[in-house]
Design goal:
The protein is of the alpha/beta class and 252 residues long. It has 11 helices and 9 strands. Helices cover 43% and strands 16% of the residues. The longest helix has 19 residues, at 203-221. The chain binds S-adenosylmethionine.
Length: 252
């Protein structure tokens, strides 16, 4: 997969190459990450890429031409005819979720546009952008963190990116549920013990316990996700058990 990020702050986005499993995946060549600064394509000699908004008002707007030339530069590097999607990170886009991250992660080439200031000239969005995606219903100062969130989430879904491919499959949202709780040593902390099922060594029992916790958590924390689930008979039994156990815990 090739990703070109068009950003006024390439050094900020470059830090994603340095750390953890995502950094390793990029360094290993699983993703070819390229950073393009639209300043290189500024209309004026002073590197200016923004101007005042027509109609007045606060802030500046990123100009059309430097961004357009930056996209052309990215596309000119993709010479094998493979498909490319141009994505603008924007609070006005559709909210990313695990399914859309997987879909975007399946693209051969992505060009990610990072806005700054008040945003970018609408004519660039109209003519050069295929999709707008948001990382949530809040506004941040620039698209770089949004692009980094998307890149991180996409790389996690690529086969071989994580030490154990199963770990991505078990993440929250992958199966439509939140993940179950996790514990590690020591076995007991201030009278809080690791649940007995996890110490049993009985794999069937451990899977059942984990599924029960995932169902119960999702039911309590994310009823919106639960509404989308069609529960099997076993799921329903485990959820009922979870709710009864919780009620008993609260009584004691
Ligand atoms: N005036 C714009 C608005 O209210 O829609 C916000 C501009 S914001 C300060 C500057 C840039 O940050 C945007 O062009 C976009 O690239 C990025 N950005 C801000 N919030 C975002 C979000 N929730 N998701 C993705 N990108 C975001």
């Amino acid at each position: 997969m090739r990703i070109d990020v068009i950003t006024l702050f390439p050094e900020l986005v470059a830090t994603i190459k340095e750390h953890g499993v995502i950094g390793r995946a990029i360094r290993n060549g699983m993703v070819d990450l390229n950073l393009i600064n639209p300043r290189e394509f500024a209309d004026s000699n002073n590197g200016r890429v923004d101007d005042r908004p027509y109609g007045g008002g606060p802030g500046m707007v990123m100009q059309y031409h430097p961004l357009k030339k930056a996209v052309e530069q990215a596309l000119s590097q993709i010479d094998d005819g493979s498909a490319t999607k141009v994505v603008y990170l924007s609070p006005q886009g559709r909210c990313l979720d695990q399914a859309s991250v997987r879909e975007l992660g399946g693209q051969e080439n992505l060009v990610l546009i990072c806005g700054r200031y008040e945003g970018i000239d609408e004519r660039f969005i109209d003519t050069c952008v295929d999709e707008e995606w948001s990382i949530g219903d809040y506004v941040i100062s620039g698209g770089e963190l949004g692009a980094m969130v998307l890149i991180d989430a996409m790389i996690r879904t690529l086969p071989g990116a994580l030490g154990d491919d199963e770990s991505a499959q078990q993440d929250s949202f992958e199966q439509g549920l939140l993940d179950h709780p996790h514990y590690t040593r020591p076995e007991s902390i201030d009278a809080q013990d690791v649940p007995e099922a996890l110490l049993s060594g009985d794999h069937r029992r451990i899977s059942r316990w984990r599924l029960k916790q995932a169902l119960g958590r999702t039911f309590l924390r994310r009823p919106d996700l639960m509404d989308k689930q069609s529960l099997s008979e076993l799921d329903q039994t485990l959820l009922n058990e979870y709710l009864v156990e919780r009620q008993n815990e609260n009584k004691s």
